[in-house]
């Protein structure tokens, strides 16, 4: 809905488009080596859609074949949604100091990679980790060794890993390999519908913009 000044509009999606958006976010999150931008609007709308579908099922006639079909669709959507959220939590637990550092250094107006609930979880997880390390090991160490940098101790996401992708929007002159002493600069065009195996950090901005889909 437009805001009070009429300066912005909410994107309206059909139920089918909404589910496709969820599936796209799920696949991107599943195959990307780093935690991607949070999609709270999609999650909220999907939950509302599921509630609406379940309400419709309660009003349907028992024994109607459509009831079984719609019930299976609800379970499928719930699986995708829970898998998406679970994948994000696994990444937060795995990369929590880097996730929090990225969130802290985020420029004003830049999309957050964490929902408010995920941000609270990440902070609590970091605090619990620090407390455990202190009580289990650090307090028994010499004073000069009782501090540890989690940013240095916890591995970063491997942005140099390779990912499979499908091109949704044609892209030109994508820099695949920068120029070095051993090789010249290498760029390619990505044709719509084509599939590629490419280093993730090369196409990370295209994943964020929705121009490509990880598969």
Automatic annotation (TrEMBL):
SUPFAM superfamilies: GINS helical bundle-like, PriA/YqbF domain. Signal peptide: none annotated. The keyword Signal does not apply. Keywords: Chromosome, DNA replication, Nucleus. It comes from the Eukaryota. Its main location: nucleus. One of its GO terms (biological process) is double-strand break repair via break-induced replication. It is found in: Chromosome; Nucleus. Belongs to the GINS4/SLD5 family. This is DNA replication complex GINS protein SLD5. It comes from Nothocercus julius. The gene is Gins4.
């Amino acid at each position: 809905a437009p805001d009070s000044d009429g300066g912005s509009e909410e994107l309206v999606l059909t139920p089918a488009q909404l589910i496709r958006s969820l599936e796209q976010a799920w696949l991107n999150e599943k195959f990307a080596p780093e935690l991607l931008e949070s999609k709270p609007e999609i999650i909220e709308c999907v939950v509302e859609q599921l509630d609406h579908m379940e309400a419709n099922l309660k009003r349907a006639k028992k024994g109607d074949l459509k009831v079984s079909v719609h019930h299976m669709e609800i379970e499928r959507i719930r699986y995708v949604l829970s898998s998406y959220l679970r994948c994000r939590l696994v990444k937060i637990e795995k990369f929590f100091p880097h996730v929090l550092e990225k969130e802290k250094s985020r420029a004003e107006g830049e999309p957050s990679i964490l929902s408010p609930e995920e941000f609270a979880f990440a902070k609590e997880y970091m605090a619990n980790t620090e407390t455990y390390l202190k009580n289990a090991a650090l307090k028994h160490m010499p004073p000069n060794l009782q501090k540890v940098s989690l940013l240095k101790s916890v591995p970063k996401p491997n942005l140099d890993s390779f990912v499979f992708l499908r091109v949704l929007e044609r892209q030109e002159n994508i820099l695949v390999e920068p120029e070095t002493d051993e090789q010249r600069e290498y760029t390619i065009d990505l044709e719509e519908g084509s599939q590629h195996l490419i280093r993730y950090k090369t196409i990370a901005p295209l994943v964020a913009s929705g121009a490509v889909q990880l598969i």
